[in-house]
């Protein structure tokens, strides 16, 4: 009897034992899922997970964009706002000094 395809590939050096075992394990997993009727459920679960990842990435990208825009607005307004904040404090201390004297 002839050798299996996997044995032939292994003999030619086109694959190694690690890849061969990985393929056998995946084949057994697929057969098990097929027998138990969960094959379609596994595919659906993967698709749902991938869709959720894509939606989350899009949502995160939009939030980051908004956050960057707000930071830029604050940085552009920052110099003016800082001087406005200091002015009331100076006035207050001047008044206080005047009233104390």
Break the fold down into its secondary structure elements and pairings.
Layout: H1 5-12, H2 17-36, H3 39-100
Keywords, separated by commas or semicolons:
101 residues; mainly alpha; 0% strand; elongated
Explain this structure:
This protein has about 100 residues and is mainly alpha-helical. The chain has two domains: about 1-35; about 40-100. Helix content is about 90%, strand content about 0%. It is built from three helices and no strands. The longest helix is centred in the last third of the chain and has 62 residues, at about 40-100. The N and C termini lie far apart (about 115 Å). The model has no long low-confidence stretch (mean pLDDT about 80).
Using DSSP, what is the number of strands? 0
For the sheet with most strands, the description reads: none
* Principal-axes shape call: elongated
**Which structural class should the secondary elements be placed in?**
mainly alpha
| Helix fraction bin | over 70%
- N-to-C CA distance: 113 Å
How many domains comprise the coordinates?
Answer: 2
Specify the number of helices.
3
Order of helices and strands: HHH
| Poorly predicted runs | none
Mean pLDDT rating: 80
**β-sheet strand percentage:** under 5%
* Rg, Cα atoms, Å: 34 Å
Q: What can be said about this structure in brief?
A:
By secondary structure, the protein is mainly alpha-helical.
């Amino acid at each position: 009897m002839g050798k299996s395809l996997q044995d032939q590939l292994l003999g030619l050096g086109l694959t190694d034992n690690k890849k061969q075992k990985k393929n056998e394990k995946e084949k057994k997993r697929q057969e098990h899922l097929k027998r138990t009727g969960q094959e379609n459920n596994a595919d659906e679960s993967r698709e749902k997970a991938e869709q959720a990842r894509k939606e989350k990435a899009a949502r995160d990208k939009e939030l980051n964009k908004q956050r960057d825009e707000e930071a830029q607005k604050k940085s552009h307004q920052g110099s003016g706002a800082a001087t406005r904040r200091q002015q009331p404090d100076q006035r207050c201390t001047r008044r206080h000094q005047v009233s104390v004297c």
